[in-house]
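ok so for the tutorial part 2 we go from a plain amino acid sequence to predicted structure tokens. step 1 is just haveing the sequence, like this:
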Amino acid sequence: NLGLAYVQQARVTGDPSNYARAEEALNRSLAIRPAVDNAVALAGHGALAAARHDFAVALDYGNRSLAIDPYRAATHGVVADALVELGRYEEAFEAIQKMVDLRPDTSSYARASYSFELRGDIVNAREVMKRSLDAATGPTDAAFALEHLAGLAHDNGDPDTAMSTVDEGLRRLPGHPPLLALRGRILAAKGDTACAVAAYTASLAKLP
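step 2 — the prediction. this is what the tokens look like for a chain of 208 residues:
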């Protein structure tokens, strides 16, 4: 669990040194309890590999973890992410559905939303991402869902809704770098170059 927390911290902070800390903790876990009976550590290695964009390795670790414990929703998320990045969409959609069935929460709904978006079903992508927002248990999860809702609005020709959604996200989690970057993208599309540069600069100051 410490290893998984370091992976999450790396995603939030952008500090890659957390990956080395994650790997150390996960390897220590496997030294205490071997891989044959350590589904959590295997899933953690899968999440770490995915964060490092080594998706074939992530898929292998995820499948090995599921062979031990097929009822852990987060592991289906690791497998789904790897399958999407490897272009194996139908298998990914099945893994996402299993994740939602096991644990309907911010993380699983977000993946389900993305699966609809990949298929061009923007209406369902938006509705399921709203479920992700409703299921958020803290400002970080809420900001994540609002970022994606804003992105859906922007990419589908609704910049005003996109901007108001970004603003809502920044009210919940001030200074959140992905939201600042998205704000910059929306402002640039509106032709407000100076404010776009300011938003991107603020994002980079927090997440270089």
